UniProtKB/TrEMBL annotation:
Mn(2+) 1 binds at residues 100, 127, 129, 131, 230. Binds 2 manganese ions per subunit. Mn(2+) 2 binds at residue 232. InterPro entries: Arginase (IPR014033), Ureohydrolase (IPR006035), Ureohydrolase_dom_sf (IPR023696), Ureohydrolase_Mn_BS (IPR020855). One of its GO terms (cellular component) is cytoplasm. It comes from Thiomonas bhubaneswarensis. Belongs to the arginase family. Its EC number is 3.5.3.1. One of its GO terms (biological process) is urea cycle. This is Arginase. Pathway: Nitrogen metabolism; urea cycle; L-ornithine and urea from L-arginine: step 1/1.
Amino acid sequence: MNAPNLVHLIGAPTDIGAGDRGASMGPEAMRVAGIDRALRGQGLTVHDTGNLVGPHNPWQPPVAGYRHLPEVIAWNTAVHRAVSEALRADALPLLLGGDHCLAIGSLSAVAQHCRAKSRKLRVLWLDAHADFNTHTVTPTGNIHGMPVACLYGNGPQALTALGGPAPQLQADCIRQIGIRSVDAEEKRLVHAAGLEVFDMRFIDEYGMREAMNQALAGLDADTHLHVSFDVDFLDPDIAPGVGTTVRGGPTYREAQLCMEMIADTGLLASLDVVELNPAFDVRNRTAEVAVDLIESLFGKSTLMRR
């Protein structure tokens, strides 16, 4: 199947799962940086559905290992509904976050859609963090550090079963790329789950090209390709506008290659862009870099040779 030509922009302006305030301003920063215009420039039809509505951030301490769990459930339920509606309309849902806890709702909807259509699912998780913490090992209780664990069925039922019986994802469908900050107990859980991780040590040793070749191996026309792009995937020298910067991430050129190789598959069918925090940015620079990279995800290429 070819990637959809219609894109639904879905704003989710919340920092409910994060440890810093400000990611709630991410969707508008992406709009200011020209996300709509950039996608139209790639020949796509764009429908901006506006922003979802959910509870405010009460900024409370964790309860039983989770911060703001009722509010996180409410926001993810809204995201699940909006992404499901986009997929039913044969559109590509592009979730504008917001923090990365929202991927629970987004990917639950995508996984449910793939099961209904009997399609294979491949998830590329572009991030500095593995996001595999649980309420028993988390140092903070912030649920933006738990979405992959929840999607694998390790979390509260209201989140793990959002798209049907848990788990929403199996270990063989996800590839994590750019990882460089993992808590000690979280690392143990990642290894036990058997996640395939192309961390920055792998990229340093073998290059982004080899990482992406392996991460994209086995795709075919019946594969739904989902990209969950946490902006802290990028090195903070080029993307300072996030709340959880980790030095030593992909350079601009490495990130461009990553995006262009994804675009070359022609299989991109859903996308999250999360953790953009304008409160930490410099003149919206990070949003502009993110939009530039998203253009490459949808076909803008530096390739000149035939």
